[in-house]
Automatic annotation (TrEMBL):
It holds the Pfam family HNHc_6. It comes from the Bacteria. This is Phage protein.
Length: 233
């Protein structure tokens, strides 16, 4: 079932309280079907879109990634550009994006488009021959995608899930709740390097934050990380 999404304007902020005026009326009947009629305190997700216009770095990354797919598939960059922008329109329910100079498309719009391309490359195991050094490694969605597809966030090779929160020596990892631990997807080479030099030096060398991310139970199970997750879904 597709999430209900509404746009609005934030009116007031106070600590963890946020007041929002929606630009459309909520479809209460549809919302009730999501929560079996119990809509007193439904869970919501708040996203603040980046209003800045598409950047040169995003444009360079996008076309570098299309170059990777051209090398792999033989399809022209022009065809790939049209195809991925069409996928963007489908996934955003009708929005159109442009990366040209003077575009009204925003940083958030371009990020969505690049996510679609990167997900395609991970799904079809397209080699990152060019453009990998341009990937926004400080973005949570990129680290999540690398974890989901077991790809090293530094070089793109097959990765293990490295725990930044040290698990005690001799402790049975299958009895650990991995949802509470921060991880990075790293290949054997880069896993050994971070173990040898430490998180801070490693992060400075590769220009990547070593805070890592936390994964949900479903993702952990899909990628084969066994643990003690209790009754979590």
């Amino acid at each position: 079932m597709q999430d209900l999404a509404y746009h609005g304007l934030a009116d007031a902020y106070r600590g963890d309280k946020l007041t929002v005026t929606l630009l459309d009326r909520i479809n209460l009947e549809r919302l009730k079907t999501y929560y079996n009629g119990q809509i007193e305190r439904p869970e919501v997700e708040v996203i603040f879109p980046d209003p800045r216009k598409v950047t040169k770095k995003q444009r360079a990354l996008y076309y570098a990634l299309l170059g990777n797919i051209y090398d792999w598939s033989g399809e022209t960059v022009e065809f790939l550009d049209e195809w991925f922008k069409a996928q963007y329109t489908v996934q955003t329910l009708g929005d159109v994006i442009s990366l040209r100079n003077g575009t009204t498309s925003t940083v958030s719009d371009a990020t969505k488009l690049i996510e679609i391309v990167i997900d395609f490359m991970f799904d079809w195991q397209v080699p990152f021959r060019r453009g990998y050094e341009l990937l926004p490694k400080d973005e949570g969605w990129f680290l999540y995608s690398c974890c989901k597809h077991r790809a090293c966030c530094i070089c793109g090779k097959h990765a293990d899930i490295h725990h930044l929160d040290v698990i005690g020596m001799g402790m049975d990892r299958t009895k650990v709740d991995h949802t509470k631990r921060h991880v990075l997807p790293l290949c054997r080479k880069h896993h050994g390097e971070i173990e040898q030099h430490g998180n801070e030096v490693f992060g400075q060398k590769y220009k990547i934050p070593t805070t890592g991310i936390k994964l949900d139970v479903e993702t952990l199970r899909k990628i084969g990380v066994k643990g003690n997750y209790g009754q979590q879904a």
